[in-house]
Amino acid sequence: MAVRELRRLPRPHRFDVYIAVGGLLGGLLLAAVGLSTRPAKDPITLFDGPWPVLVPLVVLAGCELLRRTAPRAALLTGTVAVSADVLTQGSLATVLMFTDVMYAAVLYGPLASARRIQWITGLLTVAGTLVPFAVWRTPEALLIGVVVGVVAYAPAATGWIVRDHRDAAEAARLRAEQTALLAEMDRAQAVTSERARMARELHDMVANHLSAIAIHSTAALSIDDPATSRQALQTIRENSVEGLAEMRRLIGILRDGGGDREPAAIPTLDGLAALVDGARANGLDVGLDDGSADGPDDDHGPVPTPVELAAYRIVQESLTNALKHACPGRVTVRLARRDGVLDVRVSSPYGHRDGPRAPGSGAGLVGMRERAALLGGTFAAGPDGESWTVRAALPLTEPSSEES
Question: Which of 36, 54, 332, 390 could bond to 346 as cystine, CB 3.0-4.6 Å?
């Protein structure tokens, strides 16, 4: 492992260079003034004199250069060097640099190595305390364990504590980044959802008026009859005024978030009769069967507000499409409640139309399908024999995503 680390080493960190140079200069100064950790005549000293201590000193200074880039190799080499230092008079600088290499090995090395170093230094400290005392039976023998603990276990434990705090801080930073990312994703999703909702509302409320204007203006231009033209212009004026009022209200809400404006009442199923009357005024032959004769509200409770809004908008858009595309004939609107579902069905004559038509973009069908999907319902639209039928099944339970 240590050899593999040495094969591809990056440049030493600047702080590591400072430590190595400072340790080396400090050791040279101590050797020059003759300060050492043991006297010259110590029994375990094999190499007397102040200069043999320079070899372990230089090796440990080199290990300091690798403390961050190759911590395991630095620790193994430093262990050999500090063991050799025991055979000399010893240098305090060598011992201090070894403690730093031990600390760095736990802090910067792999997690598995850091754990092993903790166990090994702890066992060495216990052994260094008990074995000499058992052999010599003197209290002074306990100092060996103290020295081993200070030189080996204490730096390893300090490195582990610092590493634990560093990892905790990194984990907290990652959590904060993930939280910020999720918040940004939620914000973007909310903006997209709100834009889609506003697009549906704008289309449903204004498209009906604009479609009527397009149909009646085409009729006024194509039919040379003053009475018919006057009636068409009257209808055009009514729809343009109503459409302009809706546009101003929506623009005001978008511009200042609503401000002090009174919110518009949310359409309900009670307004279907007025909606059908407006379609008749625009020239459609419409019949409404809302199931009120059966008293569904008495049997099953009120319809949830989001379901009422979705049903109203689907009927509104279906009548708008019938005004633009349907052949002459009866348009029927039916609402029924069965098995916890509100069934909405709008049928209009289907086939070739000779009269004026208003262009369509298909956004209406997309909006109706989205409304049904948001409530967990189903939607279908297409030819059904000689009729074009729009069908929507809206669950009457609480929806998971409500429109306001």
Answer: 390
pLDDT score for 299: 44
**Structure-block tokens of residue 300:** 């099953």
Paired tokens of 113 = 């190595």
What is the DSSP code string of 168-180?
HHHHHHHHHHHHH
- Contact at 8 Å (CB) between 30 and 92? yes
In angstroms, rounded to a whole number, what is the distance separating the alpha carbons of residues 394 and 305? 12
* Whole-structure pTM value: 0.53
The larger pLDDT score, comparing residue 88 to residue 252, is at 88
Q: Mean pLDDT in the chain?
A: 80
Are 226 and 256 a contacting pair, CB within 8 Å? no
Spatial separation of the C-alpha atoms in residues 384 and 381, rounded to whole Å: 9
- For 181, 185, 241, 315, the CA distances from 173, given in Å and listed in that order, are 12, 18, 56, 51
Helix or strand or coil: residue 333?
Answer: strand
Cα–Cα distance for residue pair 309/301, rounded to 1 Å: 17
Using DSSP's 3-state secondary structure scheme, residue 357 falls into coil
8: tokens are: 């591809």
Angle, helices 363-374 vs 154-222, to 10°: value is: 130
Amino acid at 209: H
**Domain segments of the chain: what residues?**
2-180, 265-404
Architecture label for domain 265-404: 2-Layer Sandwich (3.30)
- Who's near 291: CB < 8 A, 6+ residues apart? 334, 335, 336, 337
- Which helix (H) or strand (E) element contains residue 289? strand 285-289
> CA–CA separation, 136 vs 142, rounded Å?
10
Amino acid at 367: G
- Tokens representing residue 385 in the block: 């024999």
Is residue 180 over pLDDT 80?
A: yes
